[in-house]
Design goal:
By secondary structure, the chain is mainly α. It is built from four helices and no strands. Helices cover 56% and strands 0% of the residues. It is globular and about 35 Å long.
Length: 84
């Protein structure tokens, strides 16, 4: 599972939505992957509700698909319902 988290983290750090997020995983030491996942989720919510603009549908979908794919690797968000 750690290798999957490393790969998922590497992918997410390349997203435009991550680069515009608070990058909380860089600060969070106890559950850095959860903080990364939450950062991407927060940005997707902001994009979805048109609070954050300047993102393409492709960028949003890329991040949204990542959330769904790697949710099982989180510690605290495995059963969290992603709503957009």
């Amino acid at each position: 599972m750690d290798k999957q988290r490393e790969q998922a983290t590497k992918i997410a750090h390349q997203f435009i939505v991550y680069q515009e997020s608070e990058c909380a995983d860089q600060k969070e030491q106890e559950h850095p992957f959860d903080a990364l996942w939450q950062s991407i989720y927060d940005m997707c919510k902001l994009i979805h509700f048109e609070i954050a603009d300047g993102f393409s549908e492709e960028e949003f979908q890329e991040a949204y698909q990542w959330l769904k794919k790697y949710q099982e690797l989180t510690d605290d968000y495995q059963t969290f319902e992603i709503e957009f």
